[in-house]
Amino acid sequence: MHQNPAPPPQPPSPGPSTAPRAAARAAAALGAGFLVLLVLVALRWHPLIAADGDVSGAAHRWAVRDREVTRVFRVLTDWVWDPLTMRLLCAAAAVWLVWRRSAWWTALWLAVTCAVATGVQQWVKAVVGRPRPVWRDPVDSAHYAAFPSGHAMTATVVCGLLLWLLHRSGPGRALWRTAVAAALVSVVGVGVTRVWLGVHWPSDVLGGWLSGALLVAVAVLVYERPRDGRRPLPPRRRG
């Protein structure tokens, strides 16, 4: 008697994503770190203020002495890593998501997160009201309050969100390493330029990094929460 062959074994179904738990732990740690720094800045904790002054003073002396480096840093901070440039990059990614993948929810999530980051940044600046460094021979100028650094926060948010979306699409090793390197250079580099140019204290930059990373973690939590009718980001087509 002829018997039909047994169906091939099926791979086990994947368990629940670990992304929400990892994002929740990251958000808790980053939130605690940012809250501690915020309190120390608001209370003008002397060791922090002294360290800020020492680092900023040394950086300003170098900026005055090395004018060529200062000019390069001004181009980088005003054009390459400027918050407007970062937001335009975010907008371009959102348009690409809609145009090439019809990922409307993901594009909206990306745009809204960047908009929220801008609002949070301005609100914290207004609440803390920290003065910027003042120099007799400034090499650059900036407006609004100092804490947190808007440049550092915006670069962290945009680079963090784009890196996470790229990781979900399953990039090749070379592309992933290149993207991570570019993001690290951008996030660290913009912080260095802001202190070098004398428009932020080091703790302002640290506050921008922490608050930006916190928003990325919260945004990942929001994205990964089950939602009826939401289409997951499709994998990148190879070839």
UniProtKB/TrEMBL annotation:
Segments crossing the lipid bilayer: 26-45, 106-124, 144-166, 178-199, 205-223
Entry annotated with the keyword Repeat: no
SMART domains in the cross-refs: acidPPc
All copies of domain Phosphatidic acid phosphatase type 2/haloperoxidase, residue ranges: 106-220
Keyword list, A-Z: Membrane, Transmembrane, Transmembrane helix
Region Disordered: start-end pairs: 1-22
Pro residues bias spans: 1-17
Name assigned to this protein: Phosphatase PAP2 family protein
Organism per entry: Streptomyces cinerochromogenes
